[in-house]
Amino acid sequence: MNLLSLLIFIPVLFGIIVLILPSSMRASFKYLTLAATLVQLVISIVIYLNFKTCPGFGGINHEEQFQFVQKLPWINLDLGSMGKMQIDYFVGIDGMSVTILVMSALVMVVAAISSWEINSNLKGFFALFLLLDMAVMGVFCALDFFLFYTFYELMLLPLYFLIGMWGGARREYAAIKFFLYTLFGSVFMLLVMVGLYFSVTDPATGNHTFNIIHMMNPKNYIEGSVFSTLSHATILGMPARTVGFVVLFVAFAIKVPVVPLHTWLPDAHVEAPTPVSIILAGVLLKIGGYGIIRICMCIFPDAAISSAFWVGLLGVISILYGAFNALAQRDLKRLIAYSSVSHMGFVLLGIASATTEGVSGAMMQMISHGFLSSMLFFLVGVVYGRVHDRDIYNFRGLASLMPRYTVYVMIAFFASLGLPGFSAFVAEAFSLAGAFKSSSVNGLLPQWMAVCGAVGILLGAAYLLWTLQRMFFGTVSLKGGEIWKIALTDINFRETAALLPLALLALGLGIMPSLVFGKINDAVLAFVSFLQVK
Amino acid sequence: MIPILSHTDAQTVNFAIWAVVLPFAAFVLNLLLFNKNRIAALVSTVGIVVSLVLAIKVFTSVWNAPVIHAQITWFIIGATKVQAGLLLNNLSVLMLLLVPMIALPVHIYSIAYMKDDEGYSRYFRYLSLFCFSMLGLVVVDNLIMLYAFWELVGFSSYLLIGFWFTRQSAVMANKKAFIMNRIGDIGLLTAIIILFTLFGTFDIQALFGKEGFVQLSNIAAGMWAGPHSAIPAVWQYVAFAGIFLAVAAKSAQFPLHTWLPDAMEGPTSVSALIHAATMVAAGVFLLGRVYPLFIESELTILAIVGCFTAFMAATIALTQNDLKRILAYSTISQLGFMVLAMGIGAYASSLFHLVTHAFFKCLLFLVAGIVIHQMKHIKDDNNLDIDPQNILHMGGLRKKLPLTFIVTIIGALALVGFVFTSGYLSKDGILIQSFVWAEGKSAVFTIVPYFALLTSVLTAFYVARLVVKVFFGEFRLQKVNPHIHIHMGDGNWLYKAPLVFLAICSLFPLFSNSPVFYEDAWIYKSFLPSNFLVRENIYHTIIPILVNLLAVFVMYAAFAFYGKRNAWSFPQTGLLYRISYNEWYIDRFYNRVIVKFVMWFSNLLYWFDKKVVDGLVHLFTRIGKSLATIAAWLDRNIVDGLLHLIAGIVQAIGNFARRFQGGKVQYYLYSMLLVLAFVFIFKMIWT
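Structure tokens for the assembled complex are given below, as produced in the milestone run.
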């Protein structure tokens, strides 16, 4: 049994068990879900440990360099004169995916732990949760565009219901907004995907193929096809390959999210229940960044290089715009949602630089943000679960009431604002270093972008420290008075069990960045040299 | 790049690592085991004692010996190997020794000073964390780790300033300190990135060492060229600006100095260690580390800013009434002297002043702690509503705190730069060299040494004012409230020993055989560049004499003003007084203009986000919905309408035809005839 397939489909197995079990056993659902995520975590760690690193395993555009590959014919239709339709179940990982897999698996465990707070319609919740889990893992492993797209769309369904049914007061608004936003992107992605299918043939069989890796090789494009590098076809008067790149980029930019396509995020986060917020921020946003690297830039490297300036610019705008918006918030969850926008801007900036430092920094930022945003949303959930309020102005002096909780808040805040010793520092520093270096290495980004990005680090300190000072320090004063004081108990064992691993990992990656860099380095080098070949 | 270390060198490196790590071990131990336990103090103190012993060993083997540089690969990113390691040269081992030497007395003092505080063990935990960060900062060999420890120092300072986190003023102060330091951090990060881009390494020795990349680089034709590549010259200036911001933030130079006076909200022992002796000196240390980077004009900027800061802070210190605030401004002023010294090329004097200042300023802060503690006791015992830090309530304390008084005099004289003290050796050296520096430059630059001299005189005045108000005259609080209980004293040995130790270190013998000639000081000599100035200049004689004479005169004047009863006092009105008392309105400007603007801008952007960006999304929704409504209307009225129309027609015809089926035979016959007639007529017309 292939480990990746096991990793992807373990949640489905548990999901079926959850569905079969009678509702009278609903108390066991959360344990089943937790068990599923834990098994997944173990598998992902096994994969991580067995992941081989050396220049021969760079991956990216070399199919034979991918690891843990499984390739099975899935849909094969003989279309007569139109050839054969060939869709494979094709999964495999390289350095770009392996660390994200481990991160996602851990975030899923934390999300499962925080699902304890759900108390209505448990069967539905956990079944959807596990379905989502499967789809997410599938996205990071899929190497066939059709398979990728299937998983990608499959995520939407459970998320829509998870937000729309278990969310806050305006949950329906948030759910539909999220759904339509993402669908808007992916519908056009579908068109590009079909266009690519008709442009690319499998060199071995001569059939049209959805194989992503074949799509990276210009030799596989049929002469005169719409996306062929040689044919210079146009769509609506614009070069077809640029259009393809932009469409895919927009689809993934919505997920990241990149300003100005970000407004679904604060609403979705504010309304979503804590576990869904954790998955949303911890894993789903990374699909955007991952998609840009794996799909957008690798399939359209020429267009990626020529649009790098704009991608970088959007990154810088996201960093600053998100940070300024966070500064204006008084809802803690909304503040963190905007800070996510800001932090994900570094990912975009790093990727756009197309330097080893920048791309490594961007990958690190994705991993680091996965841990830290999960931690932050979990922490918000702790307070919200106790008093059902998140307004920063309604709290003061929580440090005296909940000292251990405050310690974790401080760790999460300082790690997020890039205190050295935590992962975000390494990530942001190298994203910026890459962005700065870019102009002298490949001339893609001007140097001022890095300097502007650095200002985002300052603003990050401003809004997080303000929150700390306003909410946690000072003498105790709560809007809800004595009732809140009794309700606001310090974190319990279950909550510590979720927070401690995240904090330790954020710290561990900050002190030993090689845990990530060591695994991704070959892929990053391959990626950067692949981009330069064009 | 991995040098092979000899056995002794390897041992030295190990000692240095342990000296750095031990306080961290104490921190971890306290965190995990002694969370609420008073043993924490002992753990931290033992940690720093051992650290001190190791630092002495390292110091003796490295001082004036070849540089030791050891490193291992930390991680690999792309093709760049990032190394982690130690760089032990004169500068770093001097700091490595200085930090535990100051930290130890502060630890001992704190055992007594903090004994009644609820957060006793938390305090020592933070203190150990600080010592670790500071020690790490001084020994690391690459810019990434330097930056890491640089921020960790700021972070532990944040924790300690906000130690009493339920106090609103304290948490405001630590937020401010961290954010202002963050401005500097961004500068440093930018500079690091620029250096990395140009030279491809973070290694301090490779960059700034002898024959290092920076020395080999040059600016020509608008490009800054390193050995491998070149970038536009403007980035050299940006790198300088970044370093300058970093220095200004950490060492409280204008315009980023305003966090330091507020940082006095932390426990006084913390102020003594962090905000007087060690952390604030980190900026000067950084200047020392990256010194070869600066070009002539940049050094001049440093000199001018340092001089201005020194002067400005001294003028503010003249009128403050908060004991710690005066000392804070005095610290800013002295740091200004150090930056000035760096700017004029008096590298050795700058570092020398850093060391001497650490001792006497730490001493003065510890004294302030004792005085404030005693005042607080009086306040608590008698339920008075006074500010225990306000010097206007004090007076005549020399009889009640005799030892404290004596050491204060030593510290104060050192701060003034009086002969026989360490401050004389270091500060007068800076003054002399600033005059030498200005000579032969245009008239504008001669302002610098004269302002430095003036600052020195102002220093004498505010120091004398402080000492007189606190220790001379009569106890004003008692005069106002004659019935209060007072029992105060110097305290036990935990208080006394650190004071005496620091006082001894504030005198000349530790630093030089000769009390008069700064050139003889061993620290000074070890940092000298090869082209150092011989004692040939007239300034070398005139300046010290002038400074001391002026100081004596000014101190006497201050004594006369403040010491005597019913003495004449300065008018407390007037523009100059207000500027000084309100700290040049700088903080007010920051709050009212910059902070307000940032908040306004962020609210504007949020409005934009809600109304414009999200508004567009909603507009699309509305357009979609309207289109849907129109489509529905069309569907209902046109498409369906057509259907209904046809149906209606059919129905109408049906209804019409139905009437012919009435069941009456006559009608049928009649209609048959009609149809037949119709057919015949039709056929006739047709043909």
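Chain A has a mean pLDDT of 89. Residues 307-534 of chain A form one domain. Further analysis is deferred to the final report.
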